[in-house]
Amino acid sequence: MSTETDNRDFWDGEADRFDDEPDHGLRDPKVRDAWAIRLRSWLPGTPSDVLDLGCGTGSLALLAAEAGHRITAVDSSTKMVARAEEKLTGTGARVLVGDAARPPVGPAGFDVVLVRHVLWTLPDPAAVLRHWVGLLRPGGRLVLVEGRWGAISPVGIGAAELVELTAPLGGRLVIEQLGHDAALWGREVEDERYAAVLRPPAPQRHKEIVDVHLLLLRGDEVLLARRSGTGYADGLLNAPSGHLEDGEDVRSGMIREAREEIGIELASEELAVALVMQHRAPDGAARVGWFFTAEYGSGGEPVNREPDKCSELGWYPLDALPDDMVAYCRAGIDAYRGGQPFLLHLHESGDPIAHDPGGSGRAVPLPPSAVPGSRI
Question: Is the overall model pTM greater than 0.90, yes or no?
Answer without folding.
Answer: no
